Amino acid sequence: MAWPQDPDASATNLQTRKVENRTGSSLSRAGARVALLGLVINVALAAVKIVAGVIGHAYVLIADGMESAIDVAGSMVIWGGLTVAARPPDRTHPYGHGKAEPIAALVVAICVIAAAVGLAIESVREIRTPHHGPAPFTLAILVAVIVIKEFLFRYVNRIGRDLESTAVQTDAWHHRSDALTSGAAFIGISVALIGGERWQSADDWAALFACAVIAANGVRLALPAFQEIMDTAPGGKIVRSIRTVASSVPGVVEVEKCYARKMGLDYYVDLHVGVNGNISVHEGHEIAHRVKSAIQQSDSRVADVLVHIEPAKL
Predict the structure, then answer these.
(1) Taking Cα atoms as reference points, which of 86, 77, 69, 79 lies closest to residue 107?
(2) pLDDT > 90: what percent of the chain?
(3) Angle at 212 between CA 210 and CA 215, to 5 degrees
(4) Which residues, 6 or more positions from 213, have their beta carbon under 8 angstroms from its beta carbon?
(5) For residue 22, pLDDT beyond 50
(6) Residue 265 burial (CB count, 10 A)
(7) Cα→Cα distances 298→18, 37, 216, 243, Å
(8) For residue 258, what are the β-bridge partners?
(9) Are 268 and 234 in contact (CB under 8 A)?
(10) What are the chain's domains?
(11) What is the pTM of this model?
């Protein structure tokens, strides 16, 4: 059974929950700022690559620019999802708006896969159609893009891991994907320039390879977002930590069940705790309260804990 809280404890829990909500909102806003940074940089890079690709007769650079344009749309979706996820719980969403984050990540992943298919079709058409070879200056642009995108990947991915944000990590891998496609474009254009007329389609083959990389990243990014939407149990590390903390609370004889689910950047826990069956209701309530407080103090990501007190088998 779940023991009711006394008035003083309820007031304390309400104040604690307000602090936790502010913390979760701050983390979501930090993720939104990172997504906004990626958005601004992707706008600039997309424009440069598409214009350079048209002028330099390099379809792989145009495809790379289109991939960056898709990243722009993706960053906007991620930013919007994190902004919604930062909203505090309300009457219609008592558990908060955290699901907006994995939904945004899944939308972006699906768009990435669809874009990869579209670009692959265009790459095949270019391979079958005679056209001018790429211009040498396009290589310098690609080198700059690779350096910028790899730096962004490392920075954004670190932030995403710190926040444990599916959406932010998805955005980070967009930057890595862009760096990989730009690398493939660099190789393709280099082969076309060195090989001469016979190898003019090398950049188109590189574009086709880039599409395969983009599609693979889209699938890889979609899986964790889908799992989070489906309330898939988180990795064992946080569950083991919760069980260990609960077991260390005085009065707890055993921890029978421990269920956790991720809601945006927060975790919600259901816990079945075994205690001496001969204690009073008041004592059981106090143990439940101490268990909840201990778990939340041990990990700030735990937004709420529902503790069920049961008589242990002594």
Answers:
(1) 77
(2) 14
(3) 110
(4) 177, 180, 181, 184
(5) no
(6) 27
(7) 17, 32, 37, 11
(8) 271
(9) no
(10) 7-229 (1.20.1510.10), 236-311 (3.30.70.1350)
(11) 0.60
